[in-house]
Amino acid sequence: MIRLILVALYLFSFLILSIPVLIVEWLVAKRNPGHRDRLSKALVGWGFRCIRALAGTKLIVRGQEHIPADGAALFVGNHRSYFDIILTYPQFPGITGYVAKKEMLRYPLLNSWMRNIHCLFLDRDNIKEGLKTILAGVEEVKSGVSMCIFPEGTRNKVNDTFLPFHEGSFKIAEKGGVPVVPMVILNSADIFEDHLPRIRRTTVVLEFQPPIHIKEMEKNDRKNIGSYVSGLISKRYFQLKEEYGPLMSQAAVPPES
Q: Are 74 and 178 in contact (CB under 8 A)?
């Protein structure tokens, strides 16, 4: 429980103490939005790295050479943990926002920081509003801001399984003319969700796959891109699990007294 308390206290302190920073960023954005974006990315990335350290999470990152260096991209991945955002965000080299559920707007200060890093809020129960969010994502990537979305639509609660990837998630890349970069996240639920309410020290693997250019895909794969990308991620997930499984099993064993 100590790790959970430390993470909760840190997050609360960060949000409260950052109120003056949010005011400064609001003033900066009026004259130089790009500077506000870079400042927000640096501060939020630093904050997430601190949370990862407090949680005792060892992160193994692979495939960063697959992240496009010359423009925006749509990052998509499997989603098992609240920590998926904390782990992935600091790994993105450029300004990157997330497509989050609209319920996140309930949380003051947190929603302000989310807006500052270009997060969009999706109404999953309103098709018309959901379409507006996707179109806003298209405009973001056209302007050079990458987006990250978890196409399962919600956090999957069963290990080693994958919910169907929603086809509409990929419209941001298709209409925005940017590549899709699949992300494979292995073992993130072992931080918290698999043994609530404890946060446990563990190892997580994050691997970026080669970018997919939708216009270059075969017609049938392009028509069923959700299933296609889900298949790539799930296949690699189990390969990584076989490779890193022994390491994670050792990490799960408490040290002898």
A: yes
Q: Classify residue 80 as exposed, middle or buried by CB count within 10 Å of its CB (0-12, 13-18, 19+).
A: buried
User: What is the token pair recorded at 119?
Assistant: 């997060």
Is 254 buried (19+), middle (13-18) or exposed (0-12) by CB count in 10 A? Answer: exposed
C-alpha angle with apex 13: 10 to 17, nearest 5 degrees? 140
Q: Which 8-state DSSP code applies to residue 212? A: B
Q: Which two tokens stand for residue 54?
A: 């407090």
List all residues 6 or more positions away from 151 whose beta carbon is below 8 Å from its beta carbon. 76, 165, 166, 169, 170, 226, 229, 230
Q: Which class for 250: exposed (0-12), middle (13-18), buried (19 or more C-beta within 10 A)?
A: exposed
Burial of 10 per CB tally in 10 Å (0-12, 13-18, 19+): middle
The string of pLDDT tens digits covering residues 28-70 is 999 999 999 999 999 999 999 999 999 999 999 999 999 998 8
Q: How confident is the model at residue 256 (pLDDT cuts 50, 70, 90)?
A: very low
For 236-249, write each residue's pLDDT tens digit. 999 999 999 877 76
Paired tokens of 103 = 């319920």
- Structure tokens of 82? 């609240």
- Segments of the chain assigned E as strands: 57-62, 74-77, 96-101, 120-122, 146-149, 180-186, 202-208
Q: Decide: pTM greater than 0.85.
A: yes
